[in-house]
């Protein structure tokens, strides 16, 4: 199988991580996996929801949504329909769990991290791009929190980095980071979330067509591990840029 | 680690599959995994949703819900709150995908299968019990459909059976089929859906505490494969009982 | 008129009251009026809603709902529709009022009783079965409350028992306890709620076809009074069984 | 017991029925039972809901609502809350059933009657005033329908008139047509809907305090029958006024 | 252009302001602009919403709604649809802003004014009639508030009066106070809210057909200013009537 | 009064109009008024809503929304709240009316234009930026429609261009194009929508503090006319760039 964009089976699409894309948010990233474009805004506020008060721990949560014309044909707004669909709920929860896996809520203190991942343009892998970008926005927000004195100087609220990638089997070939056109043809579709140190946070594999066997599963996990490793390096590189050299908010 | 009910790490809880628990539904099962008790009703109706008409294929879908006092403390009804929560959405979608993985919609013809999985009592593993029971209810509904002449005599709408089980790591030990008490302590929680012939339909693993490594993942997959094998046999045994010997609807 | 199940006009369908059908609830009953099957869960919790605090009185309320495939053809879920229908509201309110008629809220103390009546299978008379079963579940929950020390040892929160039955006129003949097939043909339909000592709590009569005259109304009230008397005895008998002899939770 | 307004126990409050209070509606009535004031608008349109088409029968339905400041303290709007309460549902359904009891839907032809009963001011008995006024508005709308040629010249869509009144027991005394102040003190509260020819359409009795016995029930039914007889005469008198002598729409 | 009711281009429709139309509300007005009829109820309560507490200032807000049969053909209820439409929201906000423009919230003290404007019959200009009537109802509610001692004796919570009128261009002619028939034909439609002393509170002009030029805009503003001046006098006259001479609540 | 960014009173903020920011939409623009950043996507589809079919005219409509972290502090999502707020409704309607004012729906043919204006970052003037950007996106979508043969070659669906700007009075000085900081201090706030040929489409002025007089209104209108003239030139310049020279998507 040769890919429409001539990528190797284990190659990511071009990834861009633009920090500080917004002026107001404590941290923000415009993340691009090829034509998929997700705006990740990290809001850090003092205090926690009522049910957590007085326990000395913080809270991190996430919401995912898609603009109506992010997709090839327009989708109606969930606000207009008056209810949130199952897919939106599912992805919001996945992003939240993935981020919490690397947050030390004790070290965060009684502060709340709210990640908003809004898909401006969708071309497959929106949830994995969202997790990957949200981690960087979150890291920036925590830096802001330390500067503002909300988080203790020596506290290390991040235990590790976290990134995510999709893998799938198309015409029998396992491939990494599927755009929409590949995703819609894949027999098996898997999203894998891993820490920077190479451990699994989430593994979600679904047989879209024929069920898959253990050997296929193993190959997909290998492929995903490689992709997450590459993404972890890109995240680290993005965060290494100093405030001066970082791309200005558009 | 010894388990509260003295089970071996790779042992299922007592499983009961009571067919025809309802009088009206085309197929129905009360499935029990220990104290978890799910009522699965399979409704088969002629015709398909508008967007599928005239294509000669059927449709299968599922809805999951929990009675307010299924749990240890009462939860408010989603109908009263006026919206369905993310967890409910997520599980309904999982059940639907799992069942569709073994349904040949061409062979089903233009008929619709609607599976309702209502948790009467919850003690961990409600989604896996639901999938396991729903398969049997679906098989019975398809038999009814054939008797009523909605489905062709020789059509084989079921390509395989499907069952599901949870696995997790508690205090470092991988265990099968977790009741609530274990589930709430597990570091890693995984739900695995497999066909009767041993292929994977869904793999959903989540690090609740520490991320997990590849070796742990492999052990959990082995454990789950064994559990699904046992469940497939219990499903087959339940379906082998003739109408005469089958437990009457309560 | 002869009835499909050969019952006498003033005869109840077979009634079964299975206590402790659930493991978690403070009181629970699976009540059956023929093929109508309602699961009644009584949740007793310490404390009262904010607007009642500090007045030394408790609160009792009820919610009624029907599983989608309780009926002959599947009904959409109210949680999915996002709103509760008028019929559900009306019956929930009726059950709540009926139970409160026999509860001494002063003796209950600042505790809340929440009755959930979920129809697992519907064949007419679901609201009357719900009231009849909910009373028994409530009685068990109050015993639990006394054992836990939430309710004073000598307090008598129940002033009386309460039960309900439907009556109707079919082809000119007044009959007791109508299954769905009769209910849908009845010219007049009445639900009567009475205390164990024979007083009326609710009388709700509706002319479905022709309006009814006073003589017909009188006959229906007599019939209902007899049915409620029988139900009160069945309730008392069910509650008389000791914990040891009571049917174990399924 | 002497009543605040010196009425006899079996005496109605001053009743006013003002026809044609609105300019647009096919029929409209401002009905007053003392200080209770309900605007009843009858909309008649050609055609029926989809599920009734081609059967040659019409449809009649009703909606009840209360303005936020109809009551002594302001109630939030149901449109703002986004859901309709149980009480509103219950009363809307009662009004609809009551009107349908006197409508011959065959004679109505494939036309739809929609009754809107909006409480402008509430002082007890809003549902009974609504039924009483809605009947007159409906009669006027049917006349309009005949004039417009939607209803056949000789068709008699009304089989009878219908009116409703409340009765209750206060301090042991049965009384007719309770204003709010009495209603809130009543031990037993009953709403009775009757045809002009004296048959029962609905009987809804509720023990608010102590349950009531058969003798009390009988007394209340007698009282209600007298009240409905008086209301039927007032309805007939209002409808007897010619278009010329009828009060102009305000 | 000659108008259907022979009014001059700068002439208001007959305006009636009936105070105390309701018995419960602190202030209430039935306002009529021709056949447009709006019931304005002013509820004054002690206390303010939580976010305003302790600042010594009051709050005024408004809600607008239309009865389903206020219009020529029946509109579905927003409570039944479960959501409030954009038009309703927009007008409610306009009324609230208009009233707040003349309220001195410091002088009001920590009290809340809630204006409910319900359109009983619509014939164009419902929002302008609502503002005009609501001002008078509000003035009465403030008098009630002073009598009850909620508002200080010498406090002057009203800085000015406020009234509103519509203007538009029909067939090239600018006209004042458009009924529905004119409104639906107007090329330009403008609503103007002014204080009694002649200053602008709101100017909302919309080109329905062709855009309008500055000269047209100027003419419309002149026309509106005249109309608001007339309305201010009618408001003052209505408020000048003593309690004795004021029309009794219907 | 000197402005924080040293602008003259009649000077716009830096305006950027980036065409084709999205790959899927028929037309799309990222429009910036200073730090206000709105993504405008124009979806053109064949066909019209049912109620317009067969009349040979098209339809144009708009939806406005704000990302949760567009603002200085995070706002909850309307999709999560389950209802759309009044402000959102109001602005969506304003944008729709403004665009329809320059669209010749006959020339558009039976096609539908849906404009989505999503505020990515808010700093005052989001509705005016949305209208200004949406016009350009709409123009591009119409070109696409002509290329695809949906719109007749010679049809001129656009009668004129349209742009909008805010004006206000701060500390007595009328100023153009207010950022949030100025907007929140303004006594009077006005949004003006004008065609490229200088006619008014909408004028919406609101007294936030003191009511304003005619002279102030005149000055504000002059200021707005100048701003809209400048914006019309910027729109024309943006549209004049050829596909080759136009900034690529991002």
Which properties best describe this structure?
homohexamer, 250 residues, alpha+beta, Ribosomal Protein S5, domain 2, 5-stranded mixed sheet, 6 helices, 30% helix, 28% strand, globular, disordered C terminus
Secondary-structure blueprint of this entry?
The structure is a homohexamer of 250-residue chains.
Chain A: E1 15-19, E2 27-33, E3 36-46, E4 59-66, H1 78-81, H2 86-100, H3 105-108, E5 111-121, H4 126-147, E6 162-170, E7 173-176, H5 180-183, E8 188-195, E9 200-207, H6 214-240
Parallel strand pairs in A: 4-5
Antiparallel strand pairs in A: 1-2, 2-3, 3-5, 6-7, 6-8, 8-9
- What CATH first level of chain A would be assigned? Alpha Beta
Series of H and E elements of chain A: EEEEHHHEHEEHEEH
**What CATH architecture of chain A would you give?**
2-Layer Sandwich
Q: How far apart are the first and last residues' alpha carbons of chain A, in Å?
A: 38 Å
Keywords (chains A, B, C, D, E, F): Nucleotidyltransferase, RNA-binding, rRNA processing, Transferase, tRNA processing, tRNA-binding
EC number (chains A, B, C, D, E, F): 2.7.7.56
Protein name (chains A, B, C, D, E, F): Ribonuclease PH
Subunit structure (chains A, B, C, D, E, F): Homohexameric ring arranged as a trimer of dimers.
Task: Describe the structure in your own words.
The structure is a homohexamer of 250-residue chains. With 250 residues, chain A is α+β, with helices and mostly antiparallel strands. Chain A has a single domain, classed as 2-Layer Sandwich (Ribosomal Protein S5, domain 2). Chain A has helices at 78-81, 86-100, 105-108, 126-147, 180-183, 214-240, and strands at 15-19, 27-33, 36-46, 59-66, 111-121, 162-170, 173-176, 188-195, 200-207. Chain A has a 5-stranded mixed β-sheet with strand order 1-2-3-5-4. Chain A has a 4-stranded antiparallel β-sheet with strand order 7-6-8-9, with helices on both faces. In chain A, a hairpin with a 2-residue loop joins strand 6 (162-170) and strand 7. In chain A, helix 4 runs parallel beside helix 6. In chain A, 54% of the residues are buried. Chains in contact: A-B, A-F, B-C, C-D, D-E, E-F. Strand 9 of chain C pairs antiparallel with strand 9 of chain D, so a sheet runs across the interface.
